[in-house]
Amino acid sequence: MAEYKILHDKSNCFYETYERKGELRNQTHYCPGCGHGNAHKLIAQAIEQLGIQDRTITVSPVGCGVFAYYYLDTGNIQAAHGRAAAVATAAKRSRPDSIVISYQGDGDLAAIGTAEILHAANRGENITVFFVNNGIYGMTGGQLAPTTPVGAKSTTSPFGRDAHNDGYPIKVCELLSALEAPVYLERVALGTTKQIMAASRAVKKALENQVKGLGFSLVEILSPCPTIWKLSPVAAQERVRDEMAAIFPIGVYRDRTREAQPYPAPKPAPPAEQIPAILGIESAEGVIEAAKPDRPVDWRIRVAGFGGQGVLMLGEVLAEAGLEAGLEVSWLPSYGPEMRSGTSNCHVRVGTHPIASPLVTKPNVLLALNEPSLKKFLPTVEPGGWVLYNGESIPEGIQVRGDVNMQAIPFTQLADELGEAKAGNIVSLGALLELTGMLRQEAVDHALAHLVKSTRWLEIDRQALKAGRRAAHAREAERAEVCQ
Amino acid sequence: MKPQLIKGNEAVVKAAVLAGCRAYYGYPITPASEIAEAAAYYFQQTGGHFIQAESEVASVNMLYGAASAGVRAMTASSGPGISLMQEGVSYLAGAELPCVIVDITRGGPGLGNIAPEQSDYRQVVKIGGHGCYRVLVLAPNSVQEMADLTTLAFDLADEYLTPVFVMADGFIGQMMEPVTFASEVRKVTTPDWAVDGTAERRKNLVASIRIEADDLEKHILHLDAKYKRAEREAVRYEAFMAEDADLVLVAYGIVSRICKSVVEQLRGEGLKAGLLRPITLYPFPEAKIRQLARTASVFGCVEMSTGQMIEDVRLSLEGRKPVEFYGRCGGNIPSEEEVLRFAREVLKRSTPVVVSEEVVHG
Lengths: 484, 362
What we know:
The complex is a heterodimer of chains A (484) and B (362).
Chain A: H1 35-50, E1 56-60, H2 68-71, E2 75-78, H3 84-94, E3 99-105, H4 106-112, H5 114-122, E4 128-133, H6 163-166, H7 172-176, E5 184-189, H8 193-211, E6 217-222, H9 226-229, H10 233-247, E7 251-255, H11 275-278, E8 298-306, H12 311-324, E9 328-333, E10 343-351, E11 365-368, H13 371-377, E12 386-390, E13 405-409, H14 411-417, H15 424-436, H16 441-451, H17 455-483
Parallel strand pairs in A: 1-2, 1-3, 3-4, 4-6, 5-6, 8-11, 11-12, 12-13
Antiparallel strand pairs in A: 5-7, 8-10, 9-10
Helix pairs in contact in A: 1-8, 4-5, 12-16, 14-15, 15-17
Chain B: E1 4-7, H1 8-18, E2 23-26, H2 33-43, E3 49-52, H3 56-68, E4 73-77, H4 79-94, E5 99-105, H5 121-125, E6 136-138, H6 143-160, E7 163-169, H7 170-174, E8 176-179, E9 205-206, H8 213-233, E10 237-240, E11 247-250, H9 253-268, E12 273-278, E13 280-282, H10 286-292, E14 298-303, H11 310-317, E15 323-327, H12 336-349
Parallel strand pairs in B: 2-3, 2-4, 4-5, 5-7, 6-7, 11-12, 11-14, 14-15
Antiparallel strand pairs in B: 1-8, 6-13, 10-12
């Protein structure tokens, strides 16, 4: 056997034998002359030189590169077609100390996965993408790729790529260089030994950028596919050098490696015991001790009006106050088709019995803050129930029901007199409390303090509540007089 | 802990953080957007990650990446977005990755509308992606359950190494009820199989590909065995006055609340109605339905769809008892009055049949 000297040994980043492969475990599944072999070698070499093998996670795509995990002795994740950049994004975010490689082919990255690569690049994900561009779908047997040259035949462009039918080859480096975030974009080729040496430097640099935390790096590797191109390995390499490099110019498209600042380290997680407070989950103090009603109550309330009248908020105050009073409560907004016509309504239940259905179809309280709401919901009110309408009087054309307690009070106007017409909802609440004694003042005060964050508004709401009570009281007194 | 009045959608997020979830990737969609909004607010303050992804396709694949790295991860969406995620769900199931997907269902098909419907049942429960796989599906019917079942979903996902869905209609997501949360944050350890960029886990591989037929078959049978175990061990339901009922209503989500109210009213009138509420839609409480079939004379399935869960009720009954259906869709909700009418009619039509001899299994 002739004497020989090993100049380029297999990188330690490759498995010794390829156990995950079914057979022929000492060789790859790539065809003779395929660019993937060289691309793998350059990546393995760079990982080894940078000393990051233990930290590396390789995300392999769908395409010939799908089996990268047969060879690369790193952590491996196999992704769905086109989604490697999204998978890599989250793996990196979850494990900021890892070095994440997204290894993708042209169909994967430049066709089905365009959204994922564009947005990963645009977010400046601190990942490294190796984009192997051989201008054809290799694994599936030679269909048109987004990078297939115009005029080139493929099994799905049997008469040659027609720009009018199929568009033009997508130039990924040029496209991504329009984005602000990427730190490094370079196109290299595997057409000559010299090109391969240059590719080696680019591959290493792209990984080094991630080690330094500089952000998104992508190296596009123009790569031969002798089998599908139906060329000898040598002729295929020549095509990369002469034809592909003419369509996809080799070069640096973005290099901010020098001026880029490393990404700040992620904020450390707060201690676990602080998390409930961050979530706003109040600690131990129980529901305020309240004398629960001595008789069962079941308030089924419908609040309705125009959007912007504080309909949902009013419902929330009622439910929150009910909770403060130790009652069972539910609040359900009508957010569906009705919302679009500009009206808004919600269902509130406050009672002593556990609530089965939170829907209020037969209310015993209707707070109608506008005329259409009164028209719509008045017929649904249970006999004996309460109807409070926002106006001087019940509008003409609406039949006053004798079997319910109806009151018209100009809530919005009263609120306007306080300087904030928007507080009309709370004026109506004051009236409701005065008329029905539904909830104790203290519970409502608590609820307002809890829900209204602005001190100015809290004061306005307190005044509004009083105004509502006063107005309702006056109405009751008037009515009593009339009855006498 | 003091209960707090909170929206279903927000409860999901707080419960998820307390369950140790630290990765949220999602795309906004009504009526699920509050989940993304609350996640954006809370995850970033609690050492977690949040990205508003470019699409649901991207978000489900980000989930795949985070789950591969061994962290508890979640997303949320509604019908149209869930449809887009189905490819990813198949990969997650194939690669045996635990994660939680919340579906706040709305009206379909197509753009449909944003109002509540229960028309995602088929695509979620019967699976919407390719391959022989299942996902576990939990169906909360209250805001408290939005929290509790989210916690459970993470635990089940870890136990069964599979995506787990929390499927609630728009109402359950949008409504507010008092919720008591867990008082402590769950400690999550990195699983042995994770690909987390460390020396001890360097040899790990997460993949759904099995290139040899025998390998893939073995893998599929392994998955199937997990689902069979879930069918034995993970079934949950609530039976309300069902044991002696002539008519058993079957409903989940908001509809089960309406049906419960209906059952209370019918019982008040002396009519023997009951409710079976599946809490796990997969695994479906088949055995319980068969057991109730021994005493009930008829089943009534009520849904906000044209009838999707009813297929599982029928399959469970295997013809033992008739099943009637009442549904509303398009964003309409079956009202108590409507369901009452339906239930009375069904009860009137069905004459209780006395089975003299037990001939059925289950």
